[in-house]
Amino acid sequence: MPSALRIPDSPEHTIATRVQKLRKCTGRNQSEISRVCGFPRPYIGLIESSTRLEIGLSKLVALALTFGVSLDWLVFGDGDEPAAVEVCSAVERARLNPKMVETALANVLGSKHRRIRTRARRARAKASPARPLPAGPSLARTSASPEART
């Protein structure tokens, strides 16, 4: 009788340690990687601390696309570990082109995942600095005395 596949519990065999290793080799913090992936800010921290035990397929695909690694390696550790240079350049490409991950996710996961694109847009909007208001006439109301009105 074949035995069930068992993934060892050692730290080097977890998604959390692989994500943390990838992030650290890029020199980016958790907030930056979350923003590039289109995740809420604390999400990467939850993954890295193994607090978030159930990670959805769309999140795994976004991580794999952002870091430029295969989904098999990210989830199971199968195959060769990616080179640091490749990971850094993949993250930089994703950072410079914010719609890259969003578009790739939509293509990979299909049109039923439109909410992913919406969340990514919202995350980018929150992350971008506020635009200054254009200069124009003062909107302040001046209260002139009754004598000045006549």
CATH architecture label: Orthogonal Bundle
Helix/strand/pairing category: mainly alpha
> Helical element count?
9
What is the first-to-last residue Cα distance?
Answer: 101 Å
- CATH fold category name: 434 Repressor (Amino-terminal Domain)
Number of domains: 1
Portion in helices = 55-70%
Q: Which percent range describes the beta-strand content?
A: under 5%
Number of strands: 0
Q: For this structure, what is the CATH class?
A: Mainly Alpha
Shape: globular
Order of helices and strands: HHHHHHHHH
CATH homologous superfamily identity = lambda repressor-like DNA-binding domains
Describe the structure.
The chain is mainly α and 150 residues long. It has one domain (11-126): Orthogonal Bundle (434 Repressor (Amino-terminal Domain)), CATH 1.10.260. The chain is built from nine helices and no strands.
Helices, strands, pairings?
Elements: H1 15-26, H2 30-37, H3 43-48, H4 57-67, H5 71-76, H6 84-96, H7 99-109, H8 114-127, H9 146-149
